[in-house]
């Protein structure tokens, strides 16, 4: 019994010592227990697991994510800037194209300061335009260099610049540079054209002033020779589109009229257009014309009637044309004799008021656009208009110099007739007796 008690005490002591030994051997390491076959070596080494550092791996991953996020934000900001640059360059290219298409430059025009500048980079003046184009192109090149430097910096920092965007930007810049060079060339041509037009306009102005001085001198010289205000004639010696006379007064609305004049011409073929009256919307309201080998024609509102008159013998002739809107009835007189009549010439059409009377030219537009082939060559005098149909006896008395009846609508006065063109003059008129065909 005693020996059994001693054995128990020894066993307890042994177990307590083993526990103390195990506590001393706990060094923080972990071990793996595995089965070993009975025939194996019980002293084989045990492989330890590496120490896991979870906090360090999480920090490294977090830093990597933040770097990627910053790179993405930088690349996004760079792309936004490039898109803004492309939009700005596209807008300027569109403005260049619209400026080239919309503005049709007339040769005689001038650069007006009051005109609005349609493109901020391109002023209207050609010299300023060329300088501005050069500055703009230099600025664009600087922008491209900055973009390339930004691209290099982005590559160094690890951010990749989109290749497609760079190629697109380079193409747009190349196209814009071509457009700007073409614009500069066009401005150079316009500058040359403007210089030529200015010189031509200067010569034309000097010629006009010279003709004006000559006309004033002629009026001062011959104005006092008129025996009376109606005793003068309009001389148009050449077939041009710039010699003519203009009556300062206009016609009222009329439902009938009589047009009389003294006329002298030997032009061939055709004497041209001694009288034309045009109104807005109808340049051929009243026209008396002979062109080519056609007979003299009377046009009213572009309706035509051929007149049996013959005055191309180089002598003075007195002619009258009477017309009424009632049935479009017309009568033609030469040297006091009625040579023809007709009807249905612009029937029931009233003569419109407010037009322009031109002596010696046919009007394609009111007061202008004359054709030299239709110009009158010869002399005119005592062109009078009444707003009624004259009686045959009244016409005959004027034709044989028995009396002179001034028109109640348009009367032949020196103050009522303006002369245009170098070579056209108002001269003293022969006496009525000298104008008679028998004389």
What does this structure look like?
The chain is an alpha+beta fold and 439 residues long. Helices cover 40% and strands 19% of the residues. Strands 10-9-8-3-12-1-14 form a 7-stranded antiparallel β-sheet. The longest helix is centred in the middle third of the chain and has 60 residues, at 163-222. It is elongated. The N and C termini lie far apart (195 Å).
Present the secondary structure layout.
Elements: H1 2-25, H2 54-102, H3 126-157, H4 163-222, E1 232-236, E2 244-247, E3 256-264, E4 272-279, E5 282-290, E6 297-300, E7 303-306, E8 316-324, E9 329-334, E10 337-342, E11 356-359, E12 378-386, H5 392-399, E13 417-420, E14 425-428, H6 432-435
Antiparallel strand pairs: 1-12, 1-14, 2-11, 2-13, 3-8, 3-12, 4-5, 4-11, 5-6, 6-7, 8-9, 9-10
Helix pairs in contact: 2-4, 3-4
Features:
6 helices, 7-stranded antiparallel sheet, 439 residues, 14 strands
Can I get a quick summary?
The chain is of the alpha+beta class and about 450 residues long. It has six helices and 14 strands. The strands form two sheets. The protein has a seven-stranded antiparallel sheet.
- What series of H and E elements makes up the topology? HHHHEEEEEEEEEEEEHEEH
Name the poorly predicted regions: 18-25, 46-52, 104-123, 221-225
Helix content: 40-55%
Tell me the strand percentage band: 15-25%
Q: Please, how many helices?
A: 6
Instruction: Label the overall shape.
Output: elongated
- Give the biggest beta sheet: 7 strands, antiparallel
Gap from first CA to last CA = 195 Å
State Rg: 53 Å
Q: How many β-strand stretches?
A: 14
Which secondary-structure class do the elements indicate?
alpha+beta
Mean pLDDT: 76
Give the strand line-up of the largest sheet: 10-9-8-3-12-1-14
């Amino acid at each position: 019994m005693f020996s059994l008690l001693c054995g128990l005490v020894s066993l307890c002591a042994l177990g307590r010592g083993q526990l103390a030994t195990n506590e001393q051997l706990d060094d923080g390491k972990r071990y793996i227990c595995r089965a070993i076959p009975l025939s194996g070596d019980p002293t084989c080494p045990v492989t330890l697991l590496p120490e896991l550092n979870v906090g360090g791996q999480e920090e490294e991953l977090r830093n990597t994510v933040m770097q990627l996020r910053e790179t993405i934000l930088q690349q996004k900001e760079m792309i936004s800037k490039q898109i803004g640059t492309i939009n700005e360059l596209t807008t300027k290219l569109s403005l260049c194209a619209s400026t080239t298409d919309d503005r049709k430059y007339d040769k005689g025009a001038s650069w007006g300061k009051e005109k609005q500048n349609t493109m901020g980079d391109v002023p209207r003046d050609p010299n300023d335009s060329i300088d501005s184009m050069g500055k703009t192109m230099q600025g664009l090149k600087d922008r491209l260099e900055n973009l390339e430097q930004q691209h290099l910096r982005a590559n160094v920092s690890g951010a990749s610049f989109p290749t497609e965007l760079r190629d697109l930007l380079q193409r747009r810049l190349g196209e814009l540079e071509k457009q700007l060079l073409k614009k500069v060339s066009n401005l150079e041509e316009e500058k040359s054209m403007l210089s030529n037009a200015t010189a031509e306009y200067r010569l034309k102005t000097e010629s006009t002033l010279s003709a004006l001085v000559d006309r004033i001198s002629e009026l001062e010289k011959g104005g006092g020779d008129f025996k009376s205000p109606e005793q003068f004639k309009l001389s148009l010696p050449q077939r041009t589109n710039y010699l003519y006379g203009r009556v300062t007064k206009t016609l009222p609305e009329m439902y009938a009229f009589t047009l009389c004049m003294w006329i002298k011409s030997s032009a061939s073929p055709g004497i041209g257009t001694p009288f034309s009256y045009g109104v807005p919307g109808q340049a051929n309201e009243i026209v008396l014309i002979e062109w080519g080998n056609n007979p003299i024609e009377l046009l009213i509102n572009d309706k035509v009637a051929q007149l049996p008159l013959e005055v191309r013998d180089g002598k003075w002739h007195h002619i009258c044309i009477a017309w009424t809107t009632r049935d479009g009835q017309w009568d033609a007189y030469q040297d006091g004799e009625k040579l023809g009549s007709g009807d249905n010439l612009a029937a029931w059409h009233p003569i419109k008021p407010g037009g322009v009377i031109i002596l010696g030219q046919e009007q394609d537009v009111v007061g202008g656009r004359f054709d030299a082939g239709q110009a009158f060559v010869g002399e005119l005098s005592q062109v009078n208009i009444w707003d009624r149909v004259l009686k045959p006896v009244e016409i005959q008395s004027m034709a044989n110099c028995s009396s002179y009846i001034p028109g109640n609508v348009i009367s032949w006065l020196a103050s009522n007739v303006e002369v245009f063109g170098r070579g056209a003059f108002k001269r003293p008129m022969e006496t009525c007796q000298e104008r008679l065909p028998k004389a």
